[in-house]
UniProtKB/TrEMBL annotation:
Keywords: Cytoplasm, DNA damage, DNA repair, Hydrolase. InterPro entries: UDG_fam1, Ura-DNA_Glyclase_AS, Uracil-DNA_glycosylase-like, Uracil-DNA_glycosylase-like_sf. This is Uracil-DNA glycosylase. It is an enzyme of class 3 (hydrolase). The gene is ung. Residues 49-211 form the Uracil-DNA glycosylase-like domain.
């Protein structure tokens, strides 16, 4: 099956694209996009992979579902395009970066600059129907993104996996903890963060220290 994705990822995912579940998933997505308003735009479904090649991955941040409001989702978890109001979870991410690294909050919630430095901003589900959270879950995307996590774990070394919240933490079993750094905390959503499960996790400085110790270039968060 021909999937429009960066060649570096196509090389490791070709077998996945030919599996029956993936063919069914693509058919489902095509029908949804034909019948309903869905996000992100078709050209942005695999944007996380296009901006961060397989060989470039240094950090994996795992989200669950794309934003389902107008103009928000553009293929990178937690990120929004230029000119879109920064969502609450991302506000809390920026607050933690400010406290951890003494970096002022950016004007934009667009995280493409992270992706281009080697941060794979991966949602477990890559599409959603407008205003219907979770509407494309359990259709095959999770099988695909679980395989992405496994392949990064198997074929790369020294990657930082940031797993925020209960859903993301379940992915630990897909990762070789001897080869990679796993950072876990509560989710940055206001509900979790305000209960004390997010702030002070220092994930961003920990990730950079780990990369630096490996002789890798650190991330400009």
């Amino acid at each position: 099956m021909n999937v429009d994705i960066d060649p570096s990822w196509k090389a490791v995912l070709t077998e996945e694209f030919d599996k029956p579940y993936f063919k069914s998933l693509i058919q489902f997505v095509k029908e949804e996009y034909t019948s309903f308003r869905c996000y992100p735009k078709g050209k942005d479904i695999f944007k996380a992979f296009d901006l961060c090649t397989f060989e470039a991955v240094k950090v994996v941040i795992l989200g669950q579902d794309p934003y389902h409001g107008p103009g928000q989702a553009h293929g990178l978890c937690f990120s929004v395009p230029e000119g879109i109001k920064t969502p609450p979870s991302l506000v809390n991410i920026f607050k933690e970066i400010e406290a951890d690294l003494e970096k002022p909050n950016p004007d934009s919630g667009n995280l493409e600059r992270w992706a281009k430095q080697g941060v794979l901003l991966l949602n477990a589900t890559l599409t959603v129907r407008a205003h219907e959270a979770g509407s494309h879950q359990h259709k095959g995307w999770e099988i695909f993104t679980d395989r992405v996590i496994e392949l990064v774990s198997e074929k790369r070394e020294g990657v930082v996996f940031m797993l925020w919240g209960g859903y993301a933490k379940k992915k630990i079993k897909k990762i070789d903890t001897a080869k990679h750094l796993i950072l876990t905390s509560g989710h940055p959503s206001p509900l979790s963060a305000n209960r004390g499960y997010w702030f002070g996790n220092k994930h961003f400085s920990e990730a950079n220290k780990y990369l630096e110790d490996l002789g890798e270039k650190t991330i400009d968060w």
